[in-house]
Design goal:
Elements (H helix, E strand, L loop, with lengths): L9 H12 L6 E4 L9 H16 L3 E6 L9 H14 L8 E2 L4 H13 L3 E4 L3 H8 L16 H12 L9 E4 L14 E5 L13 E3 L1 H12 L3 E5 L6 H10 L7 E5 L2 E3 L6 H9 L14 H7 L3 H11 L6 E3 L1 H15 L2 E2 L1 E2 L2 E6 L7 E6 L11 E6 L1 E5 L3 E2 L9 E2 L3 E4 L4 E9 L5 E8 L17 E2 L1 E3 L4 E8 L24 E9 L11 E4 L3 E5 L7 E7 L9
Parallel strand pairs: 1-2, 2-3, 8-9, 10-11, 12-27, 14-22, 18-19, 20-23, 25-29
Antiparallel strand pairs: 4-5, 5-6, 6-7, 13-26, 14-17, 15-16, 17-24, 20-21, 21-22, 25-26, 27-28, 28-29
This protein binds adenosine-5'-triphosphate and magnesium ion.
């Protein structure tokens, strides 16, 4: 998938060495989302990385839901995540996996630690536990119940499981080192009491394992060779390794950390994205303004463009802040090469071609796209009345305005050169119609009299066209780092992030536009049909102008 000439990134280098030295026989990675929201662009990086590494080294990648916290998780998120991974073009090995399907094993492994004197039931509530944990500068204090007997711990743990105690009243903790310089090693929690039904296991459990107790063990059960996570887990690695060393696990995975993707003008935190959804600031997780994979899909981004972007940003050991213009460049580049062209008029202004016969129509023909020979030509109906964009007409203008002006000529794209004679106005003085003339024999030719047209403008025939709504998007946030400096990130929302054109006109073929097919509306931008609206609606994917200069 990645370009072969590129130097190996640090993870590819590690994997290559592991395969060559025989440390690892087969590369097995996993993408481990928690189903507590939709996936965002940061997850796309992790997906491309995990699936991409497996693909490049002849291995496999699992899709595993890290579903250890039923309070925030939902089946709808599970389904959305599967769809997003598939849409990006990746196939997971075998069935989808769930951390929750290993809960019986985790329970036994917790008992194993208790029996080895390495775990105990703690009676501190969460607040007390925090006090006892100490800080970066002070060691922690041992829990008063740290020295319970194995028998008592086994009994209490089983009763926790059976639902005999209230949430927060007890927890199971590993017995490691309350004075460790790494706070993660100060007797971390293995199990909490949560009297919550779970989307996979129903009412079976009253206790749920912590992320730390679950994650590495899930990897070990699945025989993951390289467990790749983001940098914030680097401090958890000693604990990851401690569990692997102290449990009867079937394999010994290794954790590697890479830098998260952060994008300017964008939030990549499920918690914040959920807030945008819950407070109806956007219309659901797949709103085209959302930096979710589902949002990008609905907006008209292609899987190839997102994969290309992930390839461009690369993988490093430090967090990165990427210019969102680079993502926009990736989709613009893809659509420029691949999207069929179409004409669209956002602000229709009628032009009557007074010298064109009233009962005549003809079919003109224009290339499907200048960049694709495989596309069939488009047939454009033409007649005495056409619509142009109101922005493309002025009664008077200086030389810089290369569009239609009274007494001057312009070319209707793929059709005739026309010359404007008169603007018709309503009582309010607004222009409601333009009278113009067709210059004879100018389809694909310059006028015979040598008076050349200024510019080329798009148009649609009055007698045959598609009519639709257009949603023009701008960035959701108008500052580079929404919420920076302790501000509420919602204060940085761009108030002009959406403008709706209720009645735009376009080429007749757009009536049958397929969802997922991007178009270049000539001179306007890239658009795709909305997947949810019941009427014909086009979402703007991205404008035509590229502000990303750094691309090679
Ligand atoms: P968030 O912080 O948005 O809630 P998360 O890390 O809690 O995300 P998970 O569902 O746990 O979400 O993430 C699944 C995988 O995606 C993890 O391996 C995580 O490290 C990775 N991931 C999440 N966000 C990013 C990001 N911004 N860049 C790269 N990888 C990410
Ligand atoms: Mg997480």
């Amino acid at each position: 998938m990645s370009e072969t000439e590129k130097p190996l990134n640090f993870l590819e280098q590690i994997i290559k060495n592991d395969l060559e030295s025989g440390k690892v026989a087969k590369v097995i990675t996993r993408f481990p989302p928690e189903p507590n929201g939709f996936l965002h662009i940061g997850h796309a990086k992790s997906i491309c990385l995990n699936f991409g590494l497996a693909e490049s080294f002849g291995g496999e990648c699992n899709l595993r839901f890290d579903d250890t916290n039923p309070a925030k998780e939902e089946l709808a998120y599970v389904e959305a995540i599967k769809k997003d991974v598939e849409w990006l073009g990746f196939r997971w090995a075998g069935e989808v996996r769930y951390a929750s399907s290993y809960f019986d094993t985790f329970y036994e492994w917790a008992q194993h630690l208790i029996k080895a004197g390495k775990a105990y039931v703690c009676d501190l509530n969460p607040e007390q536990a925090r006090e006892y944990r100490g800080s970066l500068t002070e060691p922690g204090k041992p829990s008063p119940t740290r020295e319970r007997s194995v028998e008592e711990n086994l009994d209490l743990f089983e009763r926790m499981k059976n639902g005999e105690f209230d949430e927060g009243s007890k927890s199971l903790r590993a017995k490691i080192d309350m004075a460790s310089g790494n706070i993660n090693m100060r007797d971390p929690v293995l199990y909490r009491i949560r009297k919550q039904a779970h989307h996979q296991t129903g009412d079976k459990w009253n206790i749920y394992p912590s992320y730390d107790f679950a994650h590495g063990q899930e990897d070990a059960i699945e025989g993951i060779s390289h467990s790749i996570c983001t940098l914030e887990f680097a401090d958890h690695k000693p604990l990851y390794d401690w569990f692997i060393e102290n449990l009867p696990v079937p394999s010994k995975p290794t954790q590697y950390e890479f830098g998260r993707l952060n994008l300017n003008y964008t939030v990549t935190s499920k918690r914040k994205l959920k807030q945008l959804v819950d407070e109806n600031i956007v219309d659901g997780w797949d709103d085209p303004r959302m930096p979710t994979i589902a949002g990008y899909r609905r907006r008209g981004y292609t899987p190839a463009s997102l994969r290309k972007f992930c390839d461009m940003i690369g993988v490093t050991r430090s967090d990165s802040l990427v210019d969102v213009a680079m993502l926009e460049h990736a989709i613009r580049d893809d659509l420029d090469k691949n999207a069929p062209r179409a004409m669209c008029v956002l602000k229709p202004l009628k032009v009557v071609l007074t010298n064109y016969p009233e009962d005549k129509t003809e079919a003109l023909s224009i290339a499907g796209s200048p960049n694709r020979d495989d596309l069939a030509d488009r047939s454009l109906p033409f007649g005495r009345e056409v619509f142009i964009d109101a922005e493309d007409f002025r009664e008077e203008a200086n030389k810089k305005f290369k569009r239609l002006v009274i007494g001057k000529r312009t070319r209707l794209r793929g059709a005739y050169v026309i010359e404007a004679d008169e603007a018709i106005k309503n009582e309010a003085g607004e222009i409601i119609e333009v009278r113009a003339r067709v210059i004879d024999d100018t389809v694909g030719k310059d006028p015979a009299d040598g008076v050349k047209p200024k510019g080329v403008i798009q148009w649609v025939a009055a007698h045959e066209h598609a009519e639709f709504e257009v949603r023009l998007y701008d960035r959701l946030f108008n500052v580079e780092a929404p919420g920076a400096g302790g501000k509420d990130f919602l204060d940085d929302i761009n108030p002009d992030n959406l403008s709706v054109v209720n009645k735009a006109l376009g080429e007749v073929a757009l009536k049958n536009a397929e969802v997922g097919q991007g178009y270049q509306f000539e001179r306007i931008g890239y658009f795709c049909r909305d997947s949810k609206a019941e009427t014909l609606v086009f979402n703007q994917t991205i404008g035509l102008r590229d502000s990303f200069n750094k691309a090679g």
